[in-house]
Every structure is written in structure tokens, then in C-alpha cells.
């Protein structure tokens, strides 16, 4: 798995998790969904996201690293 795919997986887990928490506990959990969306929006322009740093620290490689030169 690459950092890019892992980031999409992580964002999906956070969104679905916050929706479940909002449904069962408190609508205030929707702020987490908004935060994830805002972070994805800014990362589209900056190509940087805190999740990418975490996933790289866990050993995931960038998509371009898999190809032979």
C-alpha cells in the first residue's frame, strides 16, 4: 500500500467513524468530518497532510517509489 492510498483509507475511516459517532452520541462529531474535508481540500493545493507524515513514519512508500528507473 502506498501513502496516497493509505491516506484515502484513513480519511474514509475518519469520516465514517465520525458519522457513526454523530448518529449514536452527539452531532458535534460532525465537526471532525468537516475537519477531515478541510484537510483534504488544503492538501489538494499544498500536497501536504499530517496523515502523510504519519503513514510515512509507519513505513509506507510514495506511489512514485515503486517504479523501476
Structural account:
The chain has helices at residues 3-24, 30-46, 50-57. By secondary structure, the protein is an all-alpha fold. It has one domain.
Task: Write a short abstract of this structure.
With 69 residues, the protein is mainly alpha-helical.
Structural class: mainly alpha
Largest sheet: none
For the secondary structure, the number of strands is 0
Any idea how many domains? 1
Question: How far is the first residue's CA from the last residue's CA?
Answer: 20 Å
The 3D shape can be described as elongated
List the helices and strands and how they pair.
Layout: H1 3-24, H2 30-46, H3 50-57
Helix pairs in contact: 1-2, 1-3
Considering the chains and any ligands shown, give keywords for the structure.
single chain; mainly alpha; 69 residues; elongated
